[in-house]
Amino acid sequence: MEQIINNMKPFAELSADSLEYLFPHFVKLEFNRGSELIQSGKPCQSLYLIEQGYCRAYNIQDGLEVNLNFYFEFETVTNLNSYIFNTPSNFTVVACEPMLVYRIDKKNLLAAIQQSPEIDIAGKKNLQLIAAKQERQLQLYRILTAKGRYEFLENTDPALLQRVPISQLASYLGVKRETLSRIRNKRRSSKTL
């Protein structure tokens, strides 16, 4: 349960009473590489708090996988629209390496909120963090060039650049693998000068 508390720290400090109401609703799950946490076309009514490993969200466009986001330790994964409006997910989330997560279903979270309004505040802050991350990614594509997106990730999320394979990273940045290789090589050579 210590890891659930660590996962929640970025968005809430809950009292002991609130944690006591909340903890029984979490289910600890292990996912193998390639296992789906969220399936496209099916409603997503759960939040997944990552303890170990990472996953990626993608959808299929013109027959190709397009990476939409990556989620790492101590982040929460869900499809926000599907979660809020009970609609089918428009993307799949798949484990990129073995993962250990804590899942809480929406109905159980709502039950815990009835016991402690403090949980409601924490939940809303968590959903705001998820929305902010999605908005940041949209802004990356609207404002920055491919080189600018890569440089932004270098400064704000270097772990992503180290852990994600280049082909998936290229898809995420909206460029071909060869283009990303050129950007990386130019960045490396400019740093050594």
Please explain how this structure is put together.
The model has no long low-confidence stretch (mean pLDDT 88). The protein has a domain of 118 residues: Sandwich (Jelly Rolls), CATH 2.60.120. The N and C termini lie far apart (48 Å). A hairpin with a 2-residue loop joins strand 4 and strand 5. The chain has nine helices and eight strands. The strands form two sheets. The chain has a four-stranded antiparallel beta sheet. Strands 2-7-4-5 form a four-stranded antiparallel beta sheet. The chain is elongated, with a radius of gyration of 18 Å. Helix 4 crosses helix 5 and helix 6 crosses helix 9.
Short description:
By secondary structure, this protein is an alpha+beta fold. The chain has a domain at 2-119: Sandwich (Jelly Rolls). Helices cover 51% and strands 22% of the residues.
SSE arrangement:
Blueprint lengths: L1 H7 L7 H7 L4 E5 L4 E3 L7 E7 L2 E7 L2 E8 L4 E2 L2 H6 L6 E4 L3 E7 H10 L1 H27 L2 H11 L1 H6 L2 H8 L3 H16 L1
Antiparallel strand pairs: 1-8, 2-7, 3-6, 3-8, 4-5, 4-7
Helix pairs in contact: 4-5, 6-9, 8-9
Pfam families: cNMP_binding
Protein name: CRP-like cAMP-binding protein
